[in-house]
Amino acid sequence: MSNDMTKGSVFKILLSFTIPLILTGLLQQLYYITDSMIVGNFIGEAALAAVGVSSPVLNVFIFIVTGLVSGYTILISQYYGAKEYKKISKLSSTFFIFIMFSAFVISIAGFIFRENILNLLHTPIEVLQQSSKYLSIVFIGVPALVLYNLCSSLLRGIGDSKTPLYAIILSTAINIILDLVFVKLFFWGIKGVAIATVIAQIISSVFLLISIYKKHPMFRISFLKNSIDLTLFFDSMKLGAPKMIQSSIASVGSLLLQNVMNTFGIEVVTAITTAYKIDTLTILPIINISIAISIFVGQNIGANNMARAKEGLRKGIFISLIVSIVITTIVVLAGKGFMKSFGVSDAVAAIGQRFFRTCAIFYPILALENAYAAFLQGNKDVVFTSISNILSLALRVLLSYTLAGILGSDVIALSEICSWVLGAILCFSRYKSNSWQKLNSKSISTATE
């Protein structure tokens, strides 16, 4: 079910690849949101805040791994465009060993130090115990979550966005059923929600692993000595390391922002963390379109076709802007209704609605930032995009801390908007400067050796 993006209609290829990608992302977030909705409606607002506070803590560890996986995905797409299938096989086997070892280390470290991290973040005492209980279970499932992301990256790099969609459909259905069983029938509370999430992650990762073994035998993971290639591994690390550093800094930045948010009290914490869950869901199409652009660009650069890569960017931007305008309209009109679906009070819903309306107007700017960054990443210009993201985050944190006393909780949304604007300016300027073309000849030669 792979997809060669180096030939055929650019617009049709982008759409056919992007639609399953968007559906996958929406369903992936849906099962996190389902957790929150069940928690809010059947356990209470304090438990809902506990789940919200826990997310940035888990992301600190997860983003480190996913940053490294991004370098792997870039190489997969370029090698696939260059028809270097043996390199994909060797890179996948080598990377699998490293990334899964890292996942188990993260799982153990997160489990041991979860309460220390929560205390450092000034987590409200009302939710500290429940947050710790939730994290203790969710961290156990980190290896399954990492395996899912690794398998998905391999499949997407070769143009298969449908198999990950089937996996997440299965996972989401199981998660929702188990959530209701564990919370409503067994009365396990927040512990039941965490257990349901972990079981669903394990099932989806195993499904993808089996699919790869059956549909793509050339990409099967092998532990034999001649299947390991450290040169390819270090090539992927060179691309993934800047993204990992950026993701790590972003995770720390999220914790710093969480620290600011926590000072506003549990009502604001509940409102903003819940709003972020919905915000993440609504902007997923924009992010997934950028992923499609990056993989399209990577395959065509691997095939030494820069003109087609640029055409993919132009048409990707068009799709992304249309989608962002539609999303903006929906969020502005239905923001409060989304919040109320989590079982929160009117006061909490009003705070969340204000956050939505402030951010949503600037979604087209976010679409442009992601599209240009995706093109640069597909061309291996990951150092610049990582620096751009770090600078944008630094601005966001700086504004949050300096203006919190003046703007109150509104500073969270306004600082995020400013970071989008800065990122869009930086990535667009880099693209227009053509400085990234210096990396292009090196990328193609590496992919076709």
**In which range does the helix fraction lie?**
over 70%
N-to-C series of helices and strands: HHHHHHHHHHHHHHH
SSE-based structural type: mainly alpha
Percent of residues in β-strands: under 5%
Radius of gyration: 21 Å
Q: Which blocks of ≥5 consecutive residues have pLDDT under 50?
A: 442-449
What is the CA–CA distance across the termini?
26 Å
| Domain tally | 1
Strand runs, count: 0
Give the overall shape.
globular
* Helical stretch tally: 15
Mean pLDDT value: 85
Largest sheet: none
Q: What's the short version?
A:
The chain is built from 15 helices and no strands.
Mind explaining what this structure looks like?
The structure is a single chain. By secondary structure, the protein is mainly alpha-helical. It has one domain (10-448). 86% of the residues lie in helices and 0% in strands. The chain is built from 15 helices and no strands. The chain has helices at residues 10-42, 45-81, 85-120, 125-138, 142-157, 162-185, 190-215, 230-262, 266-302, 306-340, 346-360, 363-378, 382-407, 410-433, 437-448. Helix 2 (45-81) runs parallel beside helix 5 (142-157) and helix 3 (85-120) runs antiparallel to helix 4. It is globular and about 55 Å long. The chain starts with 9 loop residues before the first helix and ends with a helix.
